[in-house]
Automatic annotation (TrEMBL):
<keyword id="KW-0227">DNA damage</keyword>
<feature type="compositionally biased region" description="Basic and acidic residues">
    <location>
        <begin position="273"/>
        <end position="290"/>
    </location>
</feature>
<dbReference type="GO" id="GO:0097550">
    <property type="term" value="C:transcription preinitiation complex"/>
</dbReference>
<dbReference type="Pfam" id="PF16203">
    <property type="entry name" value="ERCC3_RAD25_C"/>
</dbReference>
<keyword id="KW-0539">Nucleus</keyword>
<dbReference type="GO" id="GO:0006289">
    <property type="term" value="P:nucleotide-excision repair"/>
</dbReference>
<dbReference type="InterPro" id="IPR006935">
    <property type="entry name" value="Helicase/UvrB_N"/>
</dbReference>
<keyword id="KW-0347">Helicase</keyword>
<dbReference type="GO" id="GO:0006367">
    <property type="term" value="P:transcription initiation at RNA polymerase II promoter"/>
</dbReference>
<dbReference type="GO" id="GO:0000112">
    <property type="term" value="C:nucleotide-excision repair factor 3 complex"/>
</dbReference>
<dbReference type="InterPro" id="IPR032438">
    <property type="entry name" value="ERCC3_RAD25_C"/>
</dbReference>
<keyword id="KW-0234">DNA repair</keyword>
<feature type="region of interest" description="Disordered">
    <location>
        <begin position="808"/>
        <end position="855"/>
    </location>
</feature>
<dbReference type="InterPro" id="IPR027417">
    <property type="entry name" value="P-loop_NTPase"/>
</dbReference>
<keyword id="KW-0067">ATP-binding</keyword>
<dbReference type="GO" id="GO:0005675">
    <property type="term" value="C:transcription factor TFIIH holo complex"/>
</dbReference>
<dbReference type="InterPro" id="IPR014001">
    <property type="entry name" value="Helicase_ATP-bd"/>
</dbReference>
Amino acid sequence: MPPKRKASDIGSARASKISTPNPATPVSLRSEDNDEYLSGSNNQSDQDYVSGSEQEHINRFKKKTAFSSYSSKAKTNRARPSIFGSKDFSYLSLKPDHDNRPLWIDPSVSAGSKKGPKITLESFSPLAAQAEDFLITVAEPQSRPIYLHEYRLTEHSLYAALSVGLSGQDIIRTLEKLSKTPLPTTVSDFINRHTKSYGKVRLVLRDNRFFVESEEPTIIQMLLKDPVIESCRKEGAEVVQGTLANKAVVISGTSDARGARQTADQPGQNTEAPKEGRETKEDEIMKALRDEDDEEDPSKQTHSFEIGPNTREKVAERCLDIGYPALSEYDYQNDRVNPDLKIDLKPHTQIRSYQEKALSKMFGNGRAKSGIIVLPCGAGKTLVGITAGCTIRKGIIVLCTSAMSVFQWSNEFKKWSDVNSGDVAVFTSGEKEKFRGQTGVIVSTYSMISQTRQRAHDSEEMMKWITSREWGLMILDEVHVVPAAIFRKVAENVRAHCKLGLTATLLREDDKITDLNYIIGPKLYEANWMELADQGHIAKVQCAEVWCPMTIEFYQEYQSLSSRKQALLYIMNPTKFQVCQFLIDYHERRGDKIIVFSDNVFALKQYAEKLKKAYIFGGTGQQERIRILENFQHNDAVNTIFLSKIGDTSLDLPEATCLIQISSHYGSRRQEAQRLGRILRAKRRNDEGFNAFFYSLVSKDTSEMGYSAKRQAFLVDQGYAFKVITQLSGMESLPGLAFKTLEERLELLNHVLLQQETNADIANIEQIDEDLFSGRSGALNSHGKKKALVRRQAGSLADLAGGGQMAYKEQNVSRNKQLKKDRGPQSEYFKKEARARERRRKARQKEQADAAGVD
Ligand SMILES: Nc1ncnc2c1ncn2[C@@H]1O[C@H](COP(=O)(O)OP(=O)(O)OP(=O)(O)O)[C@@H](O)[C@H]1O
């Protein structure tokens, strides 16, 4: 039976079961009502499942949602009782050509709210691509499943739009054109309210002097009447006139100044050049919509006055207070004070269209804007940062979360750009380099720059060297994990004209992420994950949640225990173990490389040791980690590894094609996305019909289920559909299936119950300061002693969910010692390897001693 799919599946979980375990036959996850399959093979039928007949889906979807028909009917039947409550918008009249227009705009905006209207985009509309381009510039993406994408206008999103050169009127006009109904006045009021003053004032650094600049002389006069701002004006400084540096910027790695042109072009316009003789209906529609647009005046007059040294922050704060937030832009083309850096992308380096689009938001009007670019894991944020550096061509400082990322960044600079290797330096606890020339690139960690403790002499010297100079660009990697206090410390220590934040998941469980709007700048660009997957830049992933019923013995204990110990019971649930064993066996036989994630270290070891697989956690030594990862990459006998949360980020293993999650971090949406990111880079992503797999194993009827739903929210919004698998047919007959007998299960239960509560708590997981490849494990502290591999400290639950000051915290101090003791190879394979290595080492020593004639 051919695989089939219903449009109603979008972003929803559905009950399914695996019908056959035979790897020769594709695994089909069949729903209980028999109407759906999640195909588990990488063959063509998978592909069919994914793509199917798009038009048929759309038609079915339209019929199901009946938006158009409902709205049309509503016009003639206004008395009809509303089933939509306050969301009944049938009073809005549809435009006659509404079918050609892709947007539905929710008119309900509460007065004074910073959250504006919701906008729904029909992604199947002929104008969807253009509308999407426009929407990602002016609104926040909320949810982007297959057919309907939701965006929201917010104060900050409008701010970001203005920062790339749009005006409130541009936004209103374009929404009016793309909307199926006349634009509600509540919406235009919201836009006017939040755009009338944004972007009117700029703080510009020119020739190393700060200017307050505006295109409207009345605003400059108004600002000068303000006593605080007037007191910051440089003595004797006059108001001067000039023109806006509205030059097209050629972004390095692109053939022309398309990036810059895009923002000067009408928003929503397709950036691709029209193909000759192939003007489509969509082009015609868009052309008609564009006809009334004005061209931007390149010779716009500006008025500015200079402010005194060290008054920038005060002026910025005051401008915000009086409702005229000042945009900060770097006029790098006219910066003649800071030395130029000789850096360009290598001729073979070609940035991808979405990378170019992201950069065009940064360099829209010939100046560099500070802000954040959001791209999925593995989509190439590093190259975006490097290209920004090659465009500005002034001193660059890059800040990362770990020492290993520092070396990766430094190598990537050398790989993609022609920068002299002597112009790239690193600053970590182990390496303190300075570049040779007048300017260059320095890569360091947040902790090195923000440290407040007494520094060693050489570190102190390095800091003086860094803080005494002015940087053109500061790249802030993984901005979502760094606490605001650290950013502030960094900003105090390092002077940079422009800040670029990079992240895959602009998410924190506590909404502190909005602080980044002020600390770094607005979100400039957020890529669409599904689009990148369709284009083959990241892998397509099939996501499934596997429900594992608790065995009776475990469930009885579960009901009577404290919630901390309950966690260990649902993680160690024998059915979950069996499902994990079955999935590993199934995917190994298909030729997949599998990573199993467990936040709980006790469970990680129990699972891995029982299944005779290698594992890595915070206590695993550096050499051991490298050996395990190399074997996973190159040894056909090592196809599965178990990782603690140490592998959540910065893990570049393109061989991995399947993830199984057995224990995770409460409801952390960010961790779920980061973990998925580990397989988005899959090498085989462009093989025909290839899918990577992401399984989350959840013990049924336990609190784990609630967490699981919360965790998936972000990915569902990115368009991933989680299937629910309730039964794995054939599992019972798997040879060597663990815990089949009651005796075995009771033994496991006893073992679990004997564990300390600290082992049981899923919060009892490592505080990982470094990533999997960290070179710091062997670093010495200032007293010449070896630093601990894993740092543990007390923290709250909010901290654990990434909501506090640190991304992850560890509550159990005593486990540190235990982890240290546990270091060393655990699996039989690696124990054998270690013994062989030791034998080789002794033989070498003997040879050398013989050669030297020593007894
Ligand atoms: N324009 C490009 N051309 C060729 N390869 C590219 C390009 N952009 C990125 N890549 C490659 O894609 C891979 C992922 O890039 P990168 O490590 O920068 O991703 P990332 O977004 O930082 O991922 P993560 O969030 O997981 O750290 C790398 O192997 C990189 O070399």
